[in-house]
Amino acid sequence: MPSGPKSAPTPTTEARGDRAAPRKASRRFDPHRFGPVVGLVLLLVVGTALNPDFATWDNMMNVLTRTAFIGIISIGMCFVIISGGIDLSVGSMAALIAGGMILLMNALAGSVGSPVAVVALGMLFALLLGGGFGLAHGYLITRGRIEPFIVTLGTLGIFRAVLTWLADGGAITLDNDLSDAYGPVYYGSLLGIPVPVWVFLAVSVAGAVLLNRTAFGRYVQAIGSNEQVARFAAVDVDRVKLLTYGLLGVCVGIATVLYVPRLGSASPTTGLLWELEAIAAVIVGGTSFKGGEGRIAGTVIGAVLLSVISNILNLTSIISVYLNAAVQGCVIIAVAFLQRRRP
Predict the structure, then answer these.
(1) How many domains does the chain have?
(2) Average pLDDT of every residue of the chain
(3) Backbone angles phi, psi at 266, to 5 degrees
(4) Is residue 192 part of a domain?
(5) How far is the C-alpha of 59 from the C-alpha of 53, rounded, in Å?
(6) Partner of 196 for a Cys bridge, out of 20, 68, 95, 233, CB 3.0 to 4.6 A?
């Protein structure tokens, strides 16, 4: 006697199966999620073993302070890479922003209230300039239909050439009185922790919330995963990309605001290879270079990890410190190779 048709699985059964699968997968070790953390812990152990001075509070704060510049830029770069883009100009952009804000502050010195007011105007100008440069990139990429690689490769040369012209091949130096008023932004501390570290922490938290808790963050990930599907889902792809590059520009502006009081000058070598370090931090942190997936926490860990590598090289002289960029390049290639095997 033929049996009756089999009943379709109930929604409850399917839901249970769907819930059970993630629980089972979550118990597995994900090297892309936890690999950077493990790598950082191992580096801390190695650094301490090679030089006892490595594990001191002062050295840790020094590492985090120097990480702040690249780390803040890396957070903006994380959004861009997740969306499927790239920006090769951030180092040159930072150099031009630094030169521009120093020229503005020197011009306003003595004519606009106190030095603190002049510094505040210079900082605001840096943020606006960075955001403007980022939006210009986004406009050329979305409206001009030019590949991000080409646009930012071109502006990489433009930004640094303009700064070199403004500095007449030398350096643009901040006025001494303004330098004294501006110094606490880099050299000051709160509760024993340097100001740049606090700013880095604040930007990191804001970036994580924006990426994981807002519609904008979901749109960024959707565009990087599949741009055409995102368009069919009524996502304004061009607008999201425009804002993503604008966000990166603001992050570059924030990093520059923190960097300028360190030396009080801008030269053609300012921000050199920052784009390499920012991209390396994002990729080492587990963000897929193809886009669609990434985490702010991983990017922060990646930035700290690269700074720790540099610090260990400085303290131990295992290899020449001049090879630091070469080490970072090797790290990028190695991580990219591992990502090819990513499911």
Answers:
(1) 1
(2) 86
(3) -135, 135
(4) yes
(5) 7
(6) 68
Which parts of the chain fold into alpha helices (H)?
Answer: 11-26, 31-50, 57-82, 90-108, 115-142, 148-166, 176-182, 184-187, 195-213, 215-225, 227-232, 237-263, 274-284, 296-316, 324-339
**Residue 72, domain member (yes or no):** yes
| Residue 46 is assigned to a structural domain of this protein | yes
Tokens 């090679």 locate to 50
Query: Which tens digits make up the pLDDT trace of 107-157?
Result: 998 787 788 999 999 999 999 999 999 999 999 999 999 999 999 999 999
Tokens 């990028």 belong to residue: 332
51-58, long-range: CB within 8 Å, 24+ apart, which pairs? Answer: 51/312, 51/315, 51/316, 53/315, 54/311, 54/312, 54/315
- Can you tell me whether residue 320 is helix, strand or coil? coil
Give the CATH number, domain containing residue 175.
Answer: 1.10.3470
* Predicted confidence (pLDDT) at residue 18 exceeds the cutoff of 50: no
Handedness of CA 212, 230, 132, 174 (dihedral sign): positive
pLDDT at 59 over 60: yes
pLDDT beyond 50 at 13: no
- Note down the domain range covering 284: 39-339
pTM, to two decimals? 0.87
Which range is most confident: 13-27, 47-61, 239-253?
239-253
Token pair, residue 85, equals 């883009």
In a domain, 32, yes or no: no
CA 269 to chain CA centroid, nearest Å: 20
Cα–Cα dist 43/308, whole Å: 7
